[in-house]
Amino acid sequence: MADSAHADTVTIDQLVDWLSRFRDLVVDKQAYLTELDSAIGDADHGSNMARGMKAVMEKVTAAGTPSGVDQWGKLVGMTLVSSVGGASGPLYGTFFLRIGTTAGATSTLDGASLSAALRAGLAGVVSRGNAEPADKTMIDAMGPALDALDESLARGDDLAAACDAARAAAESGRDATKPLVARKGRASYLGDRSAGHLDPGAASTALLFTALAGAVGGKAT
Ligand code: ADP
Ligand code: MG
Fold it and tell me: Does ligand 1 have an atom closer than 6 angstroms to the CB of 40?
């Protein structure tokens, strides 16, 4: 990170790299995500995410580098909403759409604006899905990730370190969904029998933050 001219900002190229890394991770982990969803859902989370992110990268590749984060978020969000049938499509779609509308036409984000945009994304997921913390959903990985990002930035860490802290917290949040009883989505139909399994959406959200940390820190995922 020391050799980066943009150590304290995230560029639009890094946001595109974030998507590409997320696509690679969900494709690589498709069977794992599907296995998690077969325990407490309908065994389609891996294929939903792989299909959605492949469609996103096809669109981004065809359209060329977006001029601003607003255009980036709109393209990603609309593609996820239209290409993923499951609950996760509109939820992740809303996440990216809100990042775009909050960040606006800018092509770089500093720590404060990245945090504000991601928080707006989370708020969008919450308003769309009505989940509360500990309902055993993707927000149980997203919320802790954004708290860790903010705490890291407040300590004076650079963006690469802050995004890596977010990744670690997302993974802890994913793991913490295991004992929870699902109160939203398909898994809630199982009632108490949903306990003892990781939430698939929290697992894909951990991959989302692994991809972000890779794109911002320049590390291989
Ligand atoms: P579906 O449940 O329609 O088959 P997916 O399997 O792709 O869709 O996604 C399931 C994931 O979506 C869950 O593991 C959970 O993390 C997330 N999810 C479902 N409903 C909600 C909700 N209301 N709020 C937040 N996340 C939700
Ligand atoms: Mg499913």
Answer: no
